[in-house]
TrEMBL record:
Keywords: Electron transport, Transport
Domain of life: Bacteria
Domain (Electron transfer flavoprotein alpha/beta-subunit N-terminal): residue spans on this chain: 23-209
Record protein name field: Electron transfer flavoprotein subunit beta
Family from the record: Belongs to the ETF beta-subunit/FixA family.
InterPro entries (UniProt xref): ET-Flavoprotein_bsu_CS, ETF_a/b_N, ETF_b, ETF_beta_N, Rossmann-like_a/b/a_fold
The species this protein was found in: Nibribacter koreensis
């Protein structure tokens, strides 16, 4: 069975976010990048399924050369080989078209990725990839099992969960608690250095959106303390300043 796991390069959650002077670019200076945490669930589950069923796990990243350390980390965790599409991932459509193109070429049985990246939280790529390939997409998945050519997926819905069966090939986006993400061990780190990492050029698709500007959220204002006897003042502040009433 052939598994394709799509990973993205995102800033660590402890990163202090800043932007360029014109507010149109994210300032990457001094930023530590990591594998998108949702993608780690997808990667680990693909490796578990490979170990149980046999097959190969290929990691695909749409990004420039600076993403390769995290691609190597994915190989150290247990992926067999990797593909990097050499283009800056400027929007969800561009990323989706690259994934769909190389997924179709590779003839993969199961395409896994995180439900969304934690930097833009778009929740778009998995659906676009499925549509471009003409195969089903299930999102967001909390549990995934394979029996022959049938996948059983448990996904989150409002107020509960839903269990779905679907035939392969299939796109699945992962979230917790699908599995416990693995940490690469020393043997994995050493073998990752010799695993294939193929760099390919992007296909001729352009981004459909452009960033007009970024803004940081407004600074938090000071806390106002209201005496318990002055409940009326609290109501006025909630209505006139906080505007939540």
């Amino acid at each position: 069975m052939k598994f394709l796991v799509c990973i993205s390069n995102v800033p660590d959650t402890t990163t202090k976010i800043t932007f360029s002077g014109d507010g149109k670019e994210f300032n990457t200076a001094g930023v530590q990048f990591v594998i998108n945490p949702y993608d780690e669930y997808a990667l680990t589950r693909a490796i578990e399924l490979k170990e149980a069923l046999g097959g190969t796990v290929t990691v695909l990243n749409v990004g420039e050369a600076d993403t390769e350390p995290n691609i190597r980390k994915a190989l150290a965790i247990g992926a067999d080989d990797a593909i990097r599409v050499n283009i800056k991932p400027t929007d969800a459509f561009l990323v989706s078209t690259q994934i769909a193109h190389y997924a179709k070429e590779g003839g993969y049985d199961l395409i896994l990725m995180g439900r969304e990246s934690i930097d833009y939280n778009g929740f778009q790529v998995h659906g676009m990839v499925g549509e471009l390939l003409g195969i089903p997409t299930i999102a967001p998945a909390m549990k995934l099992d394979i029996n022959g050519t049938t996948a059983t997926v448990e996904r989150e819905i409002e107020g509960g969960k839903e269990i779905i069966e679907a035939s392969l090939p299939l796109v699945v986006s992962a979230q917790q608690p699908m599995t416990e993400p693995r940490i690469p061990n020393m043997r994995g780190i050493m073998t990752a250095r010799t695993k294939p990492l193929q760099v390919v050029e992007a296909v001729g698709q352009e981004a459909k959106t452009q960033v007009q500007g970024y803004q940081l959220p407004p600074a938090k204002s000071g806390v106002k303390m209201i005496d318990a006897e002055n409940a009326g003042d609290l109501i006025k502040l909630l209505r006139n300043e906080a505007k939540v009433l």
